[in-house]
Write a structure and sequence with these properties.
By secondary structure, the chain is mainly alpha-helical. The chain is built from 21 helices and seven strands. The strands form two sheets. The chain has a five-stranded mixed β-sheet with strand order 4-3-5-7-6. The N terminus is likely disordered.
């Protein structure tokens, strides 16, 4: 046990608990080495779960040479080398990877591997904060190391997103914010205030859906914690509200500065109605035609989104995704650990509130309950959208609930029984179960091949059509890229059979060059068509075209000469086809 309760970030490394810190750094170092090797073998963009945000961040860095800071660092998805065809903006959630990669480009870090070393470092720092946060809350080195170990062996929640320019920041933002919230409650100083402000900005730059979860979790930790005077708690609560709301306000100012008051006000209204559940029961939701016309007028990307006004529908979406995506990836034991640890936490916090002085020295119950409830409330605030992000696509979040529940269960059992053998048996059982779950997750992995990056990098001047987002190619080329909706192959074939142009506007995926209407005859005739299967969740998207094998695609389009082919992608050379 660690006896000193007044711990700050640097004092951890001045203590005599050398073995614990050495083990923690060893776990993190080994994890990062394995992740680096994995990245090296996959063009430094391993696409285990999702890598779209990394390509978008790279595209923003390449756009720096075309637009500079003209659009105030709003996300510009246009791929044309002509500035007159920019911007095609996305104005909702911020991608912190965009900001980091643009800054890295300005500092001369132009190579992909150099930028990804920053991402790798952020992943390592996130793991370090997991260890420090749990250590500070639980005052137990073993529990902190156990939690770190569980995270470090997580394939779905940590390893898969370890080199994702946006999602690699999740653990740093969540546990860093909670760590510095604890510091504020113990010692409200200028240094702690500045660090808390920094982490609140980082949280906001990961998307509104994640920002609200971190915000609520920090507030709840302040309420549940049994340390600090009441006056200090009130001060911290007010400060947290201020430092988390500040980046939200700055974002609104940024959008207003670039696009004006009318756009900002209308966009805010539409987004509020479409993203927050049940509000359309009280406010009129505009027609889809009206919304589409508004965003097309400003040439703004607005991802498909519909309001949800039914509690039963929200519950149905949650229960389906939990049963199909979450439960199979964690198992019965981990779900049971959540129930057990939640009951323990509620009892521990209730007992502490009845005593003038805490009878339970650990803040671990407060930390866990804050994350659990913060996650539940935050997911509901933006449901069902957030269910798709964190349940279906498994973006980093739920691991905090599941892996902390295992550590807390071990911690709780040690409080109830002094039987050492029983404690060790339970520990081994939890660890082996988690390892078995991870092995199964690895067996079920369906990574997307990115070996075509080398082709795009060596054919920079050519134009492309790609059966996914255009940023995946435009990040490496120097010309425009036409994105096609995955599964459009049947429509392309139908167009060819009807002696029509193979690519039409209806099959494009978020293509927003300003001259696309006037210059469609040019954009519809790219030099190459790059095809690969971009669907990562075929078992959950059974109603969607899940892609075709490369050989099948080649057989479908014999009129398109194959320029390059592997078992995972094919590049069709269309240049002679357009001359016919």
């Amino acid at each position: 046990m660690l006896k000193n309760t007044n711990l700050n970030f640097f004092s951890h490394f001045k203590r005599n608990d050398f073995i614990s810190h050495y083990c923690a750094f060893s776990i993190i170092f080994i994890f990062l080495v394995i992740l680096f090797i994995h990245g090296f073998l996959n063009s430094f963009i391993p696409c285990e779960k999702d890598c779209g945000e990394t390509f978008i961040a790279l595209h923003q860095a390449s756009n720096l040479y075309i637009t500079g800071a003209k659009f105030c660092w709003l996300e510009d998805l246009a791929t044309s080398p002509n500035i007159a065809n920019h911007p095609y903006l996305y104005t909702h959630s911020i991608n912190i990877g965009n900001l980091v990669f643009v800054l890295a480009e300005q500092l001369g870090l132009s190579a992909l591997w150099q930028k990804q070393m920053i991402t790798l470092a952020i992943t390592g720092l996130g793991l370090l904060y997991i260890y420090l946060c749990v250590l500070k809350a639980g005052k137990n080195s073993f529990i902190a190391l156990l939690t770190l170990f569980l995270f470090s062996i997580s394939y779905n929640q940590v390893f898969s997103f370890g080199l994702n320019a946006l999602r690699a920041w999740h653990w740093l933002a969540l546990f860093g914010s909670l760590y510095h919230t604890q510091n504020l409650l113990e010692n409200f100083t200028l240094k702690n205030s500045l660090l808390m402000t920094l982490f609140s900005f980082i949280s906001f730059c990961l998307g509104y859906d994640f920002w609200i979860i971190v915000f609520i979790s920090c507030l709840l930790l302040s309420v549940f914690s049994h340390f600090g005077h009441l006056r200090t708690k009130r001060t911290v609560l007010l400060f947290l509200c201020g430092c988390f709301i500040a980046p939200f306000c700055l974002r609104q100012i940024q959008v207003y500065t670039v696009l004006g008051f009318d756009y900002w006000m209308t966009d805010f209204h539409y987004t509020f109605l479409s993203k927050v559940p049940l509000v359309t029961k009280f406010f009129r939701y505009p027609s889809s035609e009206e919304i589409k016309a508004f965003y097309e007028h400003y040439n703004i990307l607005r991802p498909y989104s519909l309001p949800e006004s039914s509690i039963l529908s929200i519950w149905g979406t949650f229960s389906w995704m939990f049963s199909k995506a979450v439960y199979p990836n964690y198992g019965l034991v981990n779900c049971g650990a959540i129930v057990f640890s939640s009951i323990f936490c509620i009892k521990a916090i209730r007992n502490n509130t009845k005593e003038k002085e805490s009878t339970h020295d650990s803040k671990l119950p407060a930390l866990y309950l804050s994350i659990l409830l913060g996650t539940m409330i935050g997911l509901f605030v933006f449901s069902p959208f957030s269910f798709h992000v964190y349940l279906k696509h498994e973006f980093p979040l739920l691991g905090a609930v599941f892996y902390l529940s295992i550590s807390l269960s071990v911690f709780a059992i040690r409080q109830y029984t002094a039987n050492i053998k029983l404690n060790y048996c339970i520990l081994v059982f939890f660890v082996l179960n988690t390892l078995m779950v991870q092995v199964q997750n690895i067996k079920n992995r369906s990574p997307m091949d990115t070996s075509w990056i080398n082709f795009a990098s060596t054919h920079k001047q050519n134009t492309y059509a790609v059966s996914w987002i255009n940023s995946c190619v435009s990040s490496f080329s120097e010309n425009w890229v036409l994105p096609l909706i995955p599964g459009s192959e049947s429509q392309i074939l139908s167009n060819l059979q009807n002696k029509e142009a193979p690519f039409d506007k209806k099959m494009t995926l978020n293509f927003g060059e300003k001259d696309k209407e006037q210059s469609w005859n040019i954009y519809s005739k790219p030099d190459f068509w790059l095809y690969f299967d971009a669907n990562r969740l075929p078992h959950l998207d059974q109603g969607i075209d899940n892609g075709n094998s490369i050989d099948k695609i080649i057989n479908l389009f014999p009129q398109f000469p194959v320029f390059e082919k592997t078992k995972n992608y094919v590049v069709f050379d269309l240049r002679d086809f357009w001359k016919r």
